[in-house]
Amino acid sequence: MQLPQRILSLLLSACLLLCLCPGIKAFAVPWASNHNPQPAEQEHKPSTVFPQLTWLRDTAIEKVFGLPPKATQKKGCHKSSLVSGLSTSQLPATLLTKYGGDVVLRFNLTTPAEETALAEAADTLFLDVWEFTGNWADIRLRKDDVPSLLGLLPKSLQNAYSPLMPDLAKSIYESYPSMAQTEPAFPPTSPGGRAFTPALKTSDGVENMFFRDYQPLSVMLPWMRLMASMFTTHVRMINIGTSYEGRDIPALRVGVTPALPQNNPEPRKTIIISGGFHAREWISVSTVTYVAWSLITSYGKSPAMTKLLEEFDFVFIPTVNPDGYVYTWENDRLWRKNRQQTSLRFCRGLDLDRGFGYEWDGNSPPSNPCSESYSGEAPFQAVESRRLAEWAKNETQNNGIRFVGFLDMHSYSQQVLYPYSYSCNAEPPSLENLEELGMGLSKAIRISSGQLYGVASACEGAVPPVAGKGRASRMETGAGSAIDWFYHEVGVRYSYQIKLRDTGSYGFLLPKENIIPTGEETFMAVKYFGDFLLGNKGIEADEVGKMETLREKHSAEGLVGDEEELDEEFRELRWDLKRRR
Predict the structure, then answer these.
(1) What does this protein do (predicted)?
(2) pLDDT in tens, 11-51
(3) Which pLDDT band, with edges at 50, 70 and 90, does 532 fall under?
(4) Fewer Cβ in 10 A, N or C end of the chain?
C-alpha cells in the first residue's frame, strides 16, 4: 500500500474511532441491565484527551513505518472476552426464557411430497422456517416440539434430519459484539463432519475497523455521515423515508454527475443495493456498507470503478427495516419482521419482502399475524415497503432517474435468485438475460473467493423439479416480493436477490470473521454487474489481471479448481437452468 493510502486509512480509522467508541455504549443487549456473567474490573476514565492522542500517535507510527503493534490494547474500545467454556446455566435469564430450549434442525428433502408435508407441519405448529434451498430446509423449534413435528411428517422424513445448532441460546449470546468470544464455542458440523461454513480467511490490506464487527444503527448512521462528509465529490447521504416507529431509512448515493449542463439530458442510470429487509440478517447490512465503502474508496484509483461511477449512480440502503434492526440489538436477535402493529396485539410485525404490490396475493400469503412471513391485509400495508416504493416512483417520475439494477442482499444459503418469486408458472420476458448475468455474478464470486453460489428462479422451492412436471413451489409464499415489484412495476431489467453466506452452520448468526470475506466476494459480483451493464458482458481488461491473480491464489490454497473444472461447473449449472425451464 502506498503512503498516501496508509495515511487516508489512518485518518478514517481515527474518525471511525470517534464514531465507534460512543456507539459501543449506545446500544444495550437485552440482558445488559440485569446480567453480568463476569464482572469487569472498574476502568479508570482519563480526565483529558492526551491518552487518546498518545494512542493515535503510536498507531500512526506503526501504520506508516510498518512497526509491529504493541501487545497492550486501548481500554474503552476493546471488549473483554468471556470464558470459552460458558455453560448454558450461566446465560442470561431473559435469553434462556425465549430460546433456552430451542434447536435448529436441517431436514433433507428429496420429493415435492416431503416438502409439502414439512411446510404444512411447520405451518400447523407455527415453526420458524429459517431457510430452504435445493435439497434441504432448516427449521427452528423447541426441543419439546420435535416429537410433535415428527409425528406430522411421513416416515421418510422422520429420520432425515440432523441438528445444526444444538444450543441456540448460546449461539445467540455469542453473536452480540459485546458478548462475543474469541472463537465460537462450537462450529456446528454435519453428521459426516463437514462444516457448512466456508473456510474463513483474513483480508489483505483492509484496515477499516468499522468492518471488524457487526455495527448497531447508532454506529452505522455516524459512519454514513462520515462517508458523505469525507468524499463530497461523489457521495451524498439521503433519506428514503420514515419507518413505522419514526426512524429515517438512510442511504448513500454514490456517483459522479456530469459537471457541465446538458441539453435534453438522459435519465441518470441508477443501481439500488439494499439490505436488512429482514432484521436478523445482519450480514446483509454489513455487506451493503462494505460494498459501498469499497466503491467509494476506489473512485479515482481504479479506472474501471471510476468509469462505473461516471456512468451510474449507486444507491446503498444498508437496512430498509431500521426498526426491526434496532430491535434485534436491544430485544430479540432473531426478530425478522418490522415492528408495525397488526390486528393481534401480541403479534407485531409484517414481512417487508412480502408486502409489495405486484402479485401480492398470488400464492395466498399467510393470514396469521403471528407468522414470520405475514404480509398484512393489503399490498403496501408494511410502512417501510411503501416508503421504498414511493421513493423509487418519485425518483423515476420527477428526478430524472432510471433504475437499471436492483440487488437485494439477504441471508443465508449462498444463492443468486432472479424473478419471478410469486409463481413458477410465469416466466419473465428477459429470462435468458437474467440467467446469463446471474451465472456471471456467481462465477465472479467463485473466482474471487472459491465459494459457490447457486443460480435459480426465486420461485423455486427446496426440491428440484420432477421431469415433465414443471418446477416445484416454495415452502413459503414468494408473493409481493421486492425483486418482482422492481422488475415488473419499475422496469428494472436486472433484479436479483442475493442470499449471502453461509450454507447452514451458523445461519443468521454468522461470526464476524465472515464480514470482510463476504463483503469482498459481493464487491467482485457488483463490479461484474456494473461491467455487464456497460455492455462488456464480462470483466474489463484492466480487471482481468486482478481476477486471474485471485484465481491463482485461491487455486494454490485449494479453494478453486483449474479452468476446465470451473467452466465445467458452470456448464452443468447452465444445463440445469435450461432443464428446469
Answers:
(1) Inactive carboxypeptidase that may play a role in cell wall organization and biogenesis.
(2) 665 565 555 555 555 566 776 655 544 443 444 443 444 44
(3) very high
(4) N
pLDDT > 60? residue 291: yes
Is the pLDDT reported for residue 311 higher than 80? yes
Other beta carbons within 10 angstroms of residue 248's beta carbon come to: 15
CB-based contact 375:355 (threshold 8 Å): yes
Task: Decide if 93 contacts 35 (C-beta within 8 A).
Answer: yes
Strand order in the sheet with 401-411: 235-242, 248-254, 313-317, 268-274, 401-411, 494-500, 415-418, 454-457
Name the packing angle between helices 282-298 and 303-311 (round to 10°).
100
Q: In whole angstroms, how far apart are CA 337 and each of 357, 370, 437, 569, 580?
A: 17, 10, 30, 36, 32
- CB-based contacts of 152, cutoff 8 Å, min separation 6: 117, 120, 121, 124, 125
Sheet holding 102-108, edge to edge: 128-132, 136-142, 102-108, 161-165
Closest Cα partner for 109 from 154, 142, 141?
Answer: 154
d(CA 60, CA 69): 10
Which helix (H) or strand (E) is 18 found in, with range?
A: helix 3-24
Q: Which amino acid is at 427?
A: E
93-173 and 210-258+267-463+474-534: identical CATH topology: no
Instruction: Catalogue the long-range contacts made by 428-432 (C-beta closer than 8 Å, 24 or more residues apart).
Output: 428/487, 430/493, 431/581
Nearest to 414 by CA among 441, 433, 437: 441
Of 147, 117, 192, whose CA–CA distance to 462 is shortest? 117
Neighbours of 433 (CB within 10 A): 14
Say if residues 460 and 421 touch (Cβ distance below 8 Å).
Answer: no
Q: Tens digit of pLDDT for each residue in 176-187?
A: 885 444 444 344
Q: Which residue, among 366, 372, 416, has the nearest Cα to 526 in the 3D structure? A: 416
**Residue 510 gets which letter from DSSP?**
-
What are the cell numbers at 85? Answer: 467454556
Give the sign of the dihedral formed by CA 362, CA 363, CA 366, CA 371. negative
**Angle between the 217-230 and 3-24 helix axes, to the nearest 10 degrees?**
150
Sequence-distant (6+) residues with CB within 8 A of 104 are 130, 138, 139, 140, 163, 164, 165, 168, 507
Which residue, chain included where needed, has cell 407468522? 371
Residue ranges of the domains in the chain? 93-173, 210-258+267-463+474-534
Distance between CA atoms of residues 427 and 440, nearest Å: 20
**pTM assigned to the model:** 0.81
Amino acid (1-letter code) at residue 555: S
Q: Which secondary structure element, helix H or strand E, spans residue 306, and what is its range?
A: helix 303-311
Q: In CATH, which superfamily holds the domain spanning 210-258+267-463+474-534?
A: Zn peptidases (3.40.630.10)
Concatenate the DSSP letters of all residues of 95-109 into one string.
HHHHHTTEEEEEEE-
